[in-house]
Amino acid sequence: MNLLDQLREMTVVVADTGDIQAIETYKPRDATTNPSLITAAAQMPQYQGIVDETLKTARADCGADAPASQVASLAFERLAVAFGLKILQIIPGRVSTEVDARLSYDIEGTIAKGRDIIKQYEAAGIDRKRILIKVAATWEGIQAAAVLEKEGIHCNLTLLFGLHQAIACAENGITLISPFVGRILDWYKKDTGRDSYAPVEDPGVLSVTQIYNYYKKFGYQTEVMGASFRNIGEITELAGSDLLTIAPSLLGELQATEGELPRKLDAARAATADIEKLTMDKATFDRMHEENRMANEKLKEGIDGFTKALETLEELLKSRLAALEA
Asked: Which domain, by its residues, includes 294?
């Protein structure tokens, strides 16, 4: 039995991609997207039709006399949902669609954008239960997500690198978190000068294991979905996590690899662990975030990276609109 099939028996497998063909190939229950993935997918020839259709609809809604920048801006706001709608035709579960990373420290802006994304999906006939609104796990992002959750809008808190972020999410009733395994590994390799870590001592694996055990120990309902993997060793060390979101290349590697896959994360075992319970207010969050150099740097870097991808996508849409209307 291959590793992917065994993993599916204990963990929900999610596809981390905007590539619809890859989702059709691996048939995950859920799928996640982010600005970088949507930008990459929007440049693939096979998805030009989605981009063009979104631009044409935006032009019709803006009016023939509207400036190109206004049309491209509206299309930009709708494109992630357009990809999400296509993905939902394939998968049985949920798709994650991300709020503009430039709103990561804006509570009211994030709330408004989350509501707008859900409105677009519901206008297309999609039940909001099938949507996760992705929000960066800043203190402000977590507070915004807490408001959305109370409105029945489920959230996926992303760019999560530390236990303080995870605890704040759980205490605010967030549906799901995406701790970033590979990016944590990247930071430690650079900081220590080491070329590699064995999977069992991988800092990203250890971080997600700590979060998973904390949640199960204290009975939190927030789901843990490990993300951002660099190799299949990281994935197999987290077998048993609630969910894992995995890039198509690693899904293929898991599918092609035979061998026994033991469960590594276990809720019953975590319930008996000796873990101290923390209460997370803003002062504690800020202090722990400042003390955690890795989480501090990687959160900022992640927001900056997603912002750059969004700016690239905006320019791409402006160029494509000009070509369509030439």
From this structure: 3-325
